[in-house]
Amino acid sequence: MDGLLLDTEALYIKAWVPVGGMMGIPITAEIARSTVGHDSKSTEEAFQKHFADFTLERARPLISQWLTEYVAEHSIDVKPGARELLEFFKKRGFPLAIGSSNRQQYAEAYLGEVDLLRYFDTIVTADLVGRAKPAPDIFLQAAKNLGLSPEQCLVLEDSPIGAQAAYEAGCLTILVPDLIQPCAMTRERVWQVLPNLLYVPNALFGTGATNG
Question: Which of 4, 193, 29 is nearest to 101 (CA)?
Answer without folding.
Answer: 4
